[in-house]
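Tutorial, part two.
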Amino acid sequence: MKILVISPHPDDETLGCGGTILKHKDIGDKIYWLIITNIVVKNGWDKDIVEKRQKEIKTVAEMYGFEKTFKLDYPTAKLDIIPIQEIIESISKVIFEIKPEIIYLPNRSDVHTDHQITFKAAYSCTKNFRYPFIKKILMYETLSETEFAPALPENTFIPNVFVDITDYFEKKIEIMKIYNSEIMIAPLPRSLDTIEALAKYRGSRIGKKYAEAFNLLEEIL
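Running the prediction step on this input gives:
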């Protein structure tokens, strides 16, 4: 089975579904990673920071064992200035190349605009009559983005799929540590303590030590 994980930024994939990715790999699925944004020197980023980020992406990709990593290189935190049709077409090309059966997307109501636009563009690339190979679509939650959405009913993340990641949680944390500049101190949202607390909370829902939770948008059996 082919699995595509779409992340607005590097680290979203690990925060949202790192353990699940490792589980897919462990059972023999082919996993692919699509990163929507990137940082580059021409957009004002320091050269050393840019080089460090590219090394992080390479290391993370190797640790997960992705078959291929795709980088669209749109400017971080500036997806709102890119015509959405351009983003849709770029994502569509990747999806047609891979032909994944399962796609993981960021939550549509995340407070970060990059997450919202990524979801909207990617979900436009899941229509069954154009992409008949897609059989399942799930949204993942991202600490520091999902829980900060405005407290309105339509923004609520309601998980209805839970994946036991007990055997993979330690490696998820190991991978997360590669993004050392993104890790916060406790009790902030992206601290290692909070990542573990969320995994334990989701695990308690299914009687497991650690779990990741998803909202199933579509499944074709």
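The helical segments are 12-26, 47-64, 84-98, 113-123, 169-176, 192-206. In part three we will examine how such features are distributed along the chain.
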